[in-house]
User: Fold these one by one.
Assistant:
Number 1:
Amino acid sequence: MDAVISGIGQSDVGRRLGRSALDLTLDAALEAVADAGLTTADIDGLATYPGGFPGPPGFSGPASPDVQDALRLRLNWHRGGIEGPAQLSAVVDAVLAVHSGLARHVLVYRTVTESSAQGSGGRDGIGLAGGGAPKMGGSLQWSIPFRAYSAANWLALNCRRHMHEFGTTVEQLAQVALNGRRNAQLNPKAVYRDPMDLGDYLSARMITTPFRLFDCDAPVDGSTAVVVSAPGHARHVDHAVARIDALGTALRGRPSWDQFDDATTMAARDAGASLWERTSLTPDDVDIAELYDGFSFLTMVWLEALGFCGRGESGPFVEGGARIALDGDLPVNTHGGQLSAGRLHGFGFIHEAVLQLRGEAGDRQVVRRDGPPEVAAVANGGGPVAGAMLLTREDGR
Amino acid sequence: MTDAPFRVQPALDDDNRFFWTAGREGVLRMARCSQCRHWIHPPAPYCSECGGRDVAPSDLGGRGTVWSYTVNHHSWDGGTEPYVIVLVELDEQPGLRLTSNLVGCDPDQVTIGMPVRVTFEERDDIWYPLFEPAGST
């Protein structure tokens, strides 16, 4: 794919920031545009996930027309939507637009205000927000009426099946959460930075077996933006850029939480397979992996789906945590992931991967061959939606 | 069992009404190809096995096994008692699964592979197919 991530930006990230989704989005967008060496007059494409989608409170962020209008963007191409290879679909759309010449510089953003929306209460279940007695149609009718209100419930079923088939343990699952917390302590923007050990993890309240509180990501307010540009722009930028080497977008199994043929990996399996079909790189070439962790189990799913270990082997792979630590063979979720840095819903991983490739990750910077990493894997999504991306470092001017 | 829990209702339409009302007759009913007899769920007017377009509701035996489960502790809907969400694989066809609740069973006693059978909970003439251990009476 001929496209690069030429700039990145991120608003403040935190619990109940008390700022509007549009306000946060503009912070991230303006930072990303300036970082790309551009002005808003240069931006001729706009993409977002999920767009003006009537999702749970705080989930959707501003629709693309709201951002276009605020910044008075003159667009040659624009799009927002939720159907596609998970949150990454907005980046995929942007890459396609740039690659095909529909736009030259596409601003891509994802904004959440789920912490403010949640207020002081607990997280809402899907279908319950706003009270009343809603009626559920579409695919959610097969889960919500059985009080399976959350992806926590749905993925707990997958995780339990993984434990049954492969002997995966709670202590192995914990390593994803503990690794995230260790890394978050080096990330000033992370929302959970207190030290956490296995005892803390195990004593947290049970949500839905086998998931405890710290297996579930932390709702936050925040916006992340990137600029996807035609590759020739790299020589006009005063820092390294991230070349998009390959995209994993396949969905070959059934798009269903409970009918997918292999419930232990689901759509990640297909996204991962298609990623490697589209590159000359191999899993051995990857220096860092930023793997979606809406729930701890999903990072284990991605480790298998992307071929960093065999099917069913993610438990032993993360055992003890050393292999996935910042100084391990494969540093994972180097900013803390959504479990500890906050649920920026996919885009936090993209932002972190680019920071690492550019050598700008501060105290948590991974060093490979005496320099920053050269190849990063990024994964978004879980269950029946998944997308993956390989990024490589390309020097600027 | 304590009081019947809150349940979000399915939105009935011409494609799904047979599924959510079959419990009135005490049976589990799902879409099936009239030609090759393959079960199709969620219902769709196309057979994924033979390409046939003649798909119609048909009765199942209502028996299966627990394919996976989770014991929910978080209060999503105001309920405070832990409850069991199960993924049941039905005996009729490998991979034919339903997400449901396991009732009549201590949450600590549920295991993968446990034989179960359907039982219905009726609310406003919607018949929720739940499952109970097949050994119980």
Number 2:
Amino acid sequence: MRVVKDVVCPFCGCLCDDLELEIEGREVKAVRNACAVGEAKFLHYGKHERTRPMIRKNGELVEVSLDEAIRKAAEILAEAKYPVLFGWSSTSCEAVRVGLQLAEEVGAIIDHCSSVCHGPSVLAIQEVGLAGFTLGQSRHRFDLIIYWGSNPLDSHFRHFERYSTFSEGRFRPSISRRSITQFLSTLAERRIKRVTRRLLIKEREEGFYFGARRAPSGPFKERDRKLIVVDVRRTRAAKMADFFLQVKPNTDYEIIQALRMLIRDMELDVDEVAGIPVEVLEELADILVNAKVGVLYFGVGLTMSKGKHRNIEAAISLVRDLNARAKFHILPMRGHYNVTGADVVITWTTGYPYAVDLTQGYPRYNPGETSTIDVLLRDDCDAFLCIASDPVAHFPRRAVENMLKHPLIAIDPVVSATTLVADVVIPSAFSGIEVGGTAYRMDHVPITLKKVFEPPEGYLPDEEILKRILAEVRRIKGKAAEALVPAGA
Amino acid sequence: MAEGIKVILLTGRTLYQGTDMEAKGKTSREYWEAAAQVRMDPEDMARIGVKEGDPVRVSTAYGSVVVRAVKSAEAPHPGVVFIPYGPWANMVTNPTTHSTGMPSYKGVDAFVEPAPGERVLELKELLRAAYGRS
């Protein structure tokens, strides 16, 4: 039995770096400090259905040697006129770097999961900037925390505990105890309701309404953190909030703009905005301007619904306005563990963060035209390479239909919807478990991934696979296999 | 009775979709159970006459899919239904990006109706039915 400390969890953008694993042989016996997803990922290591190198022949996937699969992938890419290289958010920055060389060599579009998660946030940040920060500040200083269109207790489970509501900071006591009391009182309330229903006592049911629900715990204490959640459903985080605003889907933009007016002391000539009474918004605006240091964490609830980047622009502008009255910050809740890293590496190399078109020999960036979904909807690309991602499961159907009209290469450690329908499957090592490297946390802090196990025979790191494909492409194109990465890099 | 209703469809991450995807893999029964479902407001379920676990058909302008109805733990949210991220959700999401690169995974107009006797397809069956290979 060996214990490995300070393991980095390769799942979400929180990139928790304090995991402890108890390992026996090639099996993880116990995981400490991780959330449910992180624990599941490590505890089931070795039990996953791993991919094998395969090529589709006569409609069926047939197992081949790794070299043959790599050669086939290189042939497809070398022949393609407008290939798309997609994925990159669940692998290391080092792999993304080689991916860029490959994109340049074959003249491809390189795009990653930002395109279908926080791409609109990037567009908005390019328009109006971002009052950013690192999560340490969130932990130690912030007294008002807002989650807007984000459900951290399902998607970023330890964000609450490590960086915001439940964390114990130098200047902020934890409110976990108060929230647990709050949670227990909700349970007790439910039990009482159930008993009264059983006793056939008719209770006066309150009908559904959009608007605010306040925590039963009463007024805030001076040094407490306040938690505000704005969402379309009463999520688990919303149940713990001091103030939960339930809004109609697709109405965030109106509500944010109304809040901006209220913060600027302007009057609203209406009684309600998108179904929310103005008094409720006034109460919320009051809480916002009275914060000492506040933060707005926003999720894909804003980027995926009507308005998209305009919602984010409004949210960032709200924070900018708030900074005239209080200290305020804003941060997108990035999903995949290295989606920020993919943004960063592609930006420092090409000048643009995602959806970069290298087909002309120089970088072009025009989301809406060069973004993967749009390329697929127009049926423009003639080959697709997918690495460390599962677009067949997570792209809308029409985009996938067009993707499958052309050769599809999938590089993945485990069987996914994409590897099931691909034309070439290349197995890879688990990044963050079997391969180290660098990843960027959602607040742009780089963290070194830890290698916990040796990969099994025949499972190469993404970086190595891409280097081999690149060398093969250069061989096909008749170029000498040059040094791919500067020595010592 | 047993007619459908107009709703707004959301898709998103859930904890179990995450754990089952990471732990058991995408071809597992657990992932199928976690992702091939639609979370509905209990009153909406009563209105169309479906119970927990019954198959329902969710249709949008972009396609339709049969998934199991599940009482939402996030209720009340009348007129709003939720399907976890995954291939089932993406049979019905709106691919339009409005020139941002981003499809509309949330806030899609949809119609939900009971689908008695219809099967909820497993991953490989779904891929074969939709894309002709698996």
